Amino acid sequence: MRVIRIEDAADAALAEPALEDYVRLTDVALRRSIETERGLYMAESPKVIRRALAAGHAPRSVLLQDQWLGDLRAELERFDVPVFVADATVLEEVAGFRMHRGALAAMHRPELPDSARLLADARRVVVLEDVVDHTNVGAVFRSVAGLGADAVLVTPRCADPLYRRSVRVSMGTVLQVPWARLPDWPEAGRMLRAAGFAVAALALDDRAVDLDAYAAEPPDRVALVLGSEGDGLSRHALAAADAVVRIPMAGGVDSLNVAAASAVAMWALRVRD
After folding, report:
1. CATH number of 2-108
2. Alpha carbons 211 and 139: distance in angstroms, whole number
3. pLDDT tens-digit map of 101-121
4. pLDDT digits over 194-239, tens only?
5. In this structure, what are the phi and psi dihedrals at residue 269, rounded to the nearest 5 degrees?
6. What is the distance between the terminal CA atoms of the chain, rounded to a whole angstrom?
7. Computed from CA positions of residues 99, 104, 109, 114, in that sequence, does the dihedral angle turn out positive or negative?
8. At what angle do helices 258-268 and 134-147 cross, to 10 degrees?
């Protein structure tokens, strides 16, 4: 660990190329390109950084307020990486936003597991089709971790679970829940069935059955498929489903937010033995 104190953001950026990882973090399109190109993701807050390190992920560098250096020193000392330390004003100048939690780490992205291998021993998995809101993706991962599903599978156009906001909203659980990317439908459906899963699509549809009825005698292995915030599941996802399931609603509301719906459905379908 090499502690480098920053007094001036502009001068430090010229002298320390590693600081480029933290510049303009609020630009989603830019971050998506840079993080893919450089093979990194951002862990925000001391708690999330600790979870990333506990998961075996290695840092490229760390950007901290002074107050967190002592707390994280023991975990970071085993890595030969720059640890940039500055006050809150300088951190905001570098990142482009106010860092309320005062700690960021640029982490090397882990290699994703093979989706077929991930399915081999699972009984409950969540499939996210084209969910583009990073907050919702992070919230789903937190529900998966808390309610005991085994893995998350995301379609090619789903938001990146390792985007900074997703990781933060998940409280770092995206770093402990196994996940992988699926191919497009119908190949994704064939893969799930080949692994022994019944595909349950959560959607408003004429053929949908109530969640209570489906959960009364659920299949041994269930892949719960949830769709995008605006249009819901695609016709290809619905065509691949063995069952369409809905959460009964009251008060003139037709549905829940996708993250809330995932939590309700996972609770109802939790493995009880």
Report:
1. 3.30.1330.30
2. 21
3. 788 899 999 888 899 899 999
4. 999 999 999 988 889 999 999 999 999 999 999 987 788 999 999 9
5. -100, 10
6. 46
7. negative
8. 20
Cα–chain center distance at 179? 9
- Strand pairing partners for 2? 82
| Residue 10 pLDDT | 66
Going from N- to C-terminal start, the domains of the chain cover: 2-108, 115-268
So what's the pLDDT on residue 20?
77
Mean pLDDT, all residues of the chain = 88
pLDDT given for residue 129 in this prediction: 97
31 or 254, greater pLDDT = 254
Residue 108 pairs with which residues in a beta bridge? 40
Cα–Cα distances (Å) from 241 to 137, 151, 203, 208, 219, in that order, read 21, 18, 11, 11, 13
d(CA 31, CA 16): 19
CATH number, domain 115-268 = 3.40.1280.10
- Helical spans, DSSP H, in the chain: 9-15, 28-38, 46-54, 66-76, 88-95, 115-119, 134-147, 164-169, 187-194, 211-216, 235-240, 258-268
What's the rounded mean pLDDT across residues 39-49? 89
Q: Which residues pair with 154 in a beta bridge?
A: 128, 181
The DSSP element (H or E) to which 172 belongs, if any, is none
